[in-house]
């Protein structure tokens, strides 16, 4: 078991699925369990266990939870693997930011194309990812949806992160998947807005009539690390740009502050979201 603990300490995202598979198989055999036996204990079929052990289908987040309960022996090996498995599923350009996001003290985002990933429902995320271009194999869609939903742990982390989201009104009116999916998504947003560590605002589509609109430069995410470093993350056309230069970070911080000031207040924003949800019937 000491060797197992040492192996987990050396986990790297690229080979985590193979390491998990090898550990699960070794621990299963140590306990003299067949694949069918283990499957029954963790709520999966023997073929699902086989697929995990051969890496034909890497362990899902829920399977890792069950493996920890049944095979972990208190070492937390599969629990610790969950973060790295999730990273394996993210697009390469997003992996570095994903780690930063999960550890962030504050996260402030302006989104103007679609609902921000942290706030997406499973149905909305599946319609969005599955409907993108170039088309993805269904298995890859499943992986990306699961990875996106796993980001929600940030909402309930201890200590809690302070999360701010300003959504352009167009993201609330743009139908993704179906009207029912959008209604469910809007209601989910309203529920998220009730969290004490979340502030949700809407930038009205008619803002430009006032003569100035700080959000026209595009989407932006500001992040504060546990070491109180401030970073800016941009993701144009699925590329990633992480900015740490203090002068540039200050410029983006000022821009975001103006965006937030120009948006509707939290209560008015919630009212608009609930109104639009009522129209998607």
Description:
With 281 residues, the protein is α/β, with parallel strands linked by helices. It folds into 2 domains: 2-88, 434 Repressor (Amino-terminal Domain); 92-279, Endonuclease, Chain A, CATH 3.30.870. It is built from 13 helices and 6 strands. Strands 3-2-1-4-5-6 form a 6-stranded mixed sheet, sandwiched between helices. Strand 4 (220-224) and strand 5 (230-234) form a beta hairpin. Helix 8 (122-130) crosses helix 9 (138-150). The longest helix has 17 residues, at 246-262. The chain is elongated. It starts with a helix and ends with a helix. Mean pLDDT is 89; it is low at 1-14.
Task: List key phrases describing it.
281 residues; alpha/beta; 434 Repressor (Amino-terminal Domain); Endonuclease, Chain A; 6 strands; elongated
Helical content stands at: 40-55%
Number of strands: 6
Helix-strand topology string: HHHHHHHEHHEHHEEEEHH
Give me the secondary-structure category. Answer: alpha/beta
Number of domains: 2
Counted by DSSP, the helix tally is: 13
Largest β-sheet summary? 6 strands, mixed
Distance between the termini: 56 Å
